[in-house]
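User: Hey, my collaborator sent me this sequence without any context and asked if I could get a structure. I don't really work with proteins. Can you help?
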Amino acid sequence: MLKQNRILILYIIIFFLALILSGIHPKDQLVWFLEVSPAVMALAILAVSFKKFRFSNLVYFLILVHSIVLMIGGHWTYAEVPFFNWLRDIGIFSRNNYDKVGHFMQGFVPVLVAREVIIRKDIVNGGRWTNFFSIAIVLAASACYEFIEWWISLLSGSRGDAFLGTQGYTWDTQSDMFFCLIGAVAAIMALARIHDRMIRDSQHS
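Assistant: No problem. I've predicted the 3D structure and written it out in structure-token form, which is a compact way to encode the shape of the chain:
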């Protein structure tokens, strides 16, 4: 338990270091705030619920990784992340596709959060139903996030384009949700067994 607590403290330190670095001269202050807000809210929720519901260290680590992805997108905006500009410029992509990384992570990480809650609260029976509902929850959340992006873009005018990161791509919303689905399925296929074992270990510790 002591070792696990030290790991979580390390995660928190890394989180705040990344947050501070991302906030130093961002490309657009409003976009930075909008992009990092979900990470900050997630940290607050995890902190408040920590004593009543402690996730496995796997989930905490992945939330940290997802948060850093959000912070990188917030610092440069999703359409201007340098490495993906370079990939575009050398012809690998036709646009800056960092936003697809963000939406892949939007499925990859939250699906394990949903899965852990479903398993530990005994909401449904059976692994297949657990995985199905975990994916369904994540896709519903992704759809709601697209609504939020739409509303913020309408309220902020042209500045909302940087937040949306569509770069003129007509099917951006649909492809965003598809990448979320890919991320959710990939996480379950790659990590379900490890996740199950870590849930059992955390319940017995």
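In plain terms: The chain has one domain: 2-204. You can pass these tokens on to your collaborator as they are.
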